[in-house]
Write a structure and sequence with these properties.
Two copies of one chain form a homodimer. Chain A has 331 residues and is an alpha/beta fold. Helix content of chain A is 31%, strand content 22%. The first copy, chain A, has a six-stranded mixed sheet, with helices on both faces. A six-stranded mixed sheet of chain A has the order 9-8-7-12-10-11. In chain A, strand 5, helix 3 and strand 6 form a beta-alpha-beta unit. In chain A, helix 4 runs antiparallel to helix 5. The longest helix of chain A has 17 residues.
């Protein structure tokens, strides 16, 4: 294993410490719960939004806490749901009078932990609603999931409800909005290589020099098929076809298009993929209103990418364009 | 070679096309010269800033064209300087009455091409000045360089002169500012793996499972030494010591600290590195006024990172904080 780490056991806390030190004015780090929260929260004029997740998907979720996005994250170990008591204690710390919205990627472990936390927090009188994110069209059930997996589409849910929360939307309104975003968001991914969790030290799976996995999950879960490597354009065609036919997207639709890197894919390749995907989406008759190219939801050092389409209406387009301030900034 | 590309010969133009399609309102792509320029340029009220470079370092330089940064880039092939006639034709397209500033990373091929272009453009009556960027402390001369190499510190030069140009600084003022930034910027990098240029198809160099290269260049040029892999903290200590002792930086200095990924390094590891580097820099007595964590100047799919320190004064700090709008956006 070649990684820029110290002790594998300290990988998550040392990463969280770095995030907090790089954002000392805006973020607070509470090591006890692997918790990153806004330094200015909670705010009783807005619903607090919490995501908890296994680590290894950065910048999701630990690096998108801030104005217009999440109020807090509590991280689990790499690819492991956060313990229910981390979520519960985080919930108490960030609870506002308007309530707390949980954004949960659809994995069995995450759902169980959040449900347990919700019961405990409700017993304390905190009002909670949840949105389950399941945008991955690749497989119906998977290794860690009943139903579809939540992957890069998570970004759009967070951005939309984050913007609406800043404007004072109620808990019920945010729950409905989140579910509406999920209902119009579809993703499929692929991998050129497996990823190596620090504590494991070896790749979760290996592919030969001419193989790729189509429909991969973000924890190395199997996808639809393992096939010979194809050209970038052929791969985009295949992912796009799966995504478009699933909703289905139609000619005339306004959309957001995302090319998301899996962690070790150079940004040059992501833009190359975007260029062809853009042309194909427009050729199909959809109109690209917003585009996203980069790493949003990764799988440690996996090489590969996913393609996400979101069907937009005027409200959703406007929410996605709203300002936000997060831990990762280019400038 | 496992890459998300089509024909290796089309790697650069297809990437540039993607950048342009993702930014169709703000950028213009002229395939003939591998040229990306601001759609609103040139502007006779500001100096136009041009960088040309080999490709493979994205987001530098092709993805940082925009308000407050570059007016244009013309790209060479991967790791190859752009031809002088690309630079010359780009210069003519973007020339403003206030002149054109060249930002040149210190590589023999780049310098020759820019000097030839400058001669031709000056014969046309265009006023030109150049800033040579050479922030890499690792080696004095290298495979492609007489003198020090220009690496991730390039970002700070671009950002500072880009901001000053928007405010109407003259060509002479920008040249002086650029040289001043270079004089206070120091970088050193390391690699866990070599990178694979698309046209070559195999890694430029290989490292065994327990080796790393300290002082690596951004084209796979040898660094200071090849040694056994160490812990993240030990590596930070080594790079930081080389950078600090070179200027030298002193207790009490205000600084900007950058942890720059080499292309395939997960952002989780970059933040982990940042956390420790931040602590060490503050322990040394320097004050971190601005921080940067992410991919700024890469080497295709190389794993590794570089550490940059910039000694700040009030003017430089303010210029680095000025607004900018570039092709790569997170949100």
């Amino acid at each position: 294993m070649k990684k820029l780490i110290n002790d594998p056991k300290q990988f998550v806390p040392e990463m969280l410490k770095g995030i907090a030190l790089a954002n000392s004015k805006t973020l607070k780090y509470i090591p006890k719960y692997n918790l990153i929260m806004r330094a200015d929260g909670p705010n009783d004029n807005k619903v607090s939004i919490l995501q908890g997740s296994g680590s290894g998907h950065e910048p999701a979720h630990a690096m998108v806490v801030g104005y217009g996005m999440l109020d807090a994250v509590c991280q689990g170990d790499v690819f492991a749901a956060p313990p229910a008591d981390y979520i519960y204690n985080t919930t108490k710390l960030i609870a506002s009078k308007k309530g707390v919205l949980y954004l949960i990627n659809n994995y069995t472990g995450d759902r169980m932990a959040f449900e347990m936390s919700q019961e405990m927090a409700e017993a304390d009188g905190i009002e909670i609603r949840s949105v389950i994110i399941n945008d991955d069209v690749a497989v119906k059930d998977s290794l860690y999931t009943t139903g579809r997996r939540g992957v890069a589409g998570n970004f759009f849910v967070t951005k939309a409800v984050g913007a609406a929360a800043e404007r004072g939307a109620t808990l019920e309104e945010l729950e409905a909005l989140g579910n509406r975003v999920v209902s119009v968001t579809r993703t499929m991914g692929m991998a050129l290589s497996g990823c190596t969790p620090p504590a494991k030290g070896t790749p979760i799976f290996t592919l030969t020099d001419d193989e790729m996995e189509i429909g991969i999950g973000i924890h190395g879960e199997p996808g639809r098929k393992r096939v010979k490597l194809k050209s970038a354009n052929q791969i985009v065609d295949e992912l796009l076809d799966a995504v478009v036919s699933d909703l289905p997207f139609k000619a005339g639709d306004d959309v957001a298009l995302m090319i998301n890197g899996m962690g070790a894919t150079p940004i040059s390749e992501l833009y190359l993929l975007y260029g062809y995907a853009h042309e194909q989406v427009e050729k199909f008759g959809m109109k690209i209103k917003r585009n996203y190219v980069g790493n949003y939801c990764t799988s440690l050092d996996m090489e590969g990418f996913s393609l996400t389409l979101v069907k937009l209406d005027a409200e959703l387009e406007e929410l996605l364009a709203a300002p936000a301030e997060i831990a990762i900034r280019t400038f």
